[in-house]
């Protein structure tokens, strides 16, 4: 395949990305620089507000916490699945992706039933005698993080299974024959080779969590407002399109910066990672 054929084949996808992603995002960001009051006035107003800084920090904190926990449990789960017999591997993969067969709103409502004052968790704790009165679990940061982990950890598992399956068993056997313990083999052999998958999974989970709307809206309410719900409020309730565009631009900058930092860290851990 020569270079011209490659350009022709890739041109429809390039055109679609340009029309439906790059141009709308660029128009949204450029709109913030034409607002009355000065070029950077919307950004100055945003960061001058303690409430808006809190919303931004809370969103970053929840997305980072969700990513780290999903990464730990997703890596362990993917390792077990990748080393399972073929018949069991198929069953485990189906179980891992099963939550993806329902919508985000449905899965978030399930957590409303679990974490409510008369929900499954409170009733179980009361029945066991651990608590005397129902705990206020809903509309807390913990509720949002739990639901986001449940919703997005299948993405991490699916990415890591593909990476871990490609690690040859010969390497693990060679490590064991040289006297390395299973823990040392996992840290010094498996973890560096899985770094590309960890980057992709972390980026997917962080981006999805940072831009999430339905789950924080249902489980966090206004007390745990995140950037997605704040953007919706500014655009659809206040009809303040300049402020909404500013929030969107800040979200784009945070996500791109985080992805670049993750890539940089991954390259230091494994120079072959990209």
Mean pLDDT: 88
| Largest sheet report | none
The global form is globular
Q: Number of helix segments? A: 13
Span of the ends, CA to CA:
25 Å
Give the radius of gyration.
Answer: 22 Å
Overall structural class, as computed from helix and strand content, comes to mainly alpha
- Per DSSP E runs of 2 or more residues, the count of β-strands stands at 0
Low-confidence stretches at least 5 residues in length (pLDDT < 50)?
none
Fraction of helical residues: over 70%
String of helices and strands: HHHHHHHHHHHHH
| Strand proportion | under 5%
Characterise the protein shown here:
- This protein has 274 residues and is mostly helical.
- The chain has helices at 3-32, 41-48, 50-82, 86-97, 104-115, 120-128, 141-165, 169-177, 182-193, 195-210, 214-220, 227-237, 241-269.
- α1 (3-32) crosses α13 and α3 (50-82) packs parallel to α7 (141-165).
- The longest helix has 33 residues, at 50-82.
- The model has no long low-confidence stretch (mean pLDDT 88).
Question: Which SSEs are present, and which pair or pack?
Answer:
Layout: H1 3-32, H2 41-48, H3 50-82, H4 86-97, H5 104-115, H6 120-128, H7 141-165, H8 169-177, H9 182-193, H10 195-210, H11 214-220, H12 227-237, H13 241-269
Helix pairs in contact: 1-13, 3-7, 3-10, 5-11, 7-10, 7-11, 8-9, 10-13, 12-13
């Amino acid at each position: 395949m020569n270079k011209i054929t490659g350009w022709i084949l890739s041109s429809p996808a390039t055109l679609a990305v340009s029309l439906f992603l790059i141009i709308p995002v660029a128009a949204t960001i450029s709109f913030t620089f034409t607002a009355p009051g000065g070029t950077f006035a919307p950004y100055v107003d945003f960061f001058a507000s303690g409430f808006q800084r809190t919303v931004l920090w809370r969103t970053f904190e929840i997305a980072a916490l969700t990513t780290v926990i999903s990464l730990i449990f997703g890596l362990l789960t993917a390792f077990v699945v990748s080393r399972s017999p073929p018949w069991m591997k198929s069953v485990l993969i189906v179980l891992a992706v099963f939550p993806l067969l329902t919508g985000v709103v449905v899965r978030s409502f399930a957590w409303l039933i679990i974490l409510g004052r008369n929900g499954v968790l409170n009733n179980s704790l009361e029945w066991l005698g651990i608590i005397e009165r129902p705990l206020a679990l809903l509309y807390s940061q913990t509720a949002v993080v739990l639901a986001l982990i449940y919703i997005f950890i299948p993405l991490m598992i699916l990415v890591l299974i593909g990476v871990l399956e490609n690690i040859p068993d010969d390497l693990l056997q060679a490590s064991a024959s040289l006297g390395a313990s299973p823990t040392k083999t996992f840290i010094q052999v498996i973890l560096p080779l899985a770094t590309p998958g960890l980057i992709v999974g972390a980026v997917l989970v962080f981006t999805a969590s940072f831009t999430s709307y339905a789950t924080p809206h249902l489980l966090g309410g206004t007390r745990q407002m995140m950037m997605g719900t704040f953007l919706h409020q500014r655009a659809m309730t206040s009809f303040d399109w300049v402020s909404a565009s500013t929030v969107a631009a800040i979200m784009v900058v945070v996500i791109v910066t985080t992805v670049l930092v993750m890539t940089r860290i991954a390259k230091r851990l494994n120079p072959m990672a990209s």
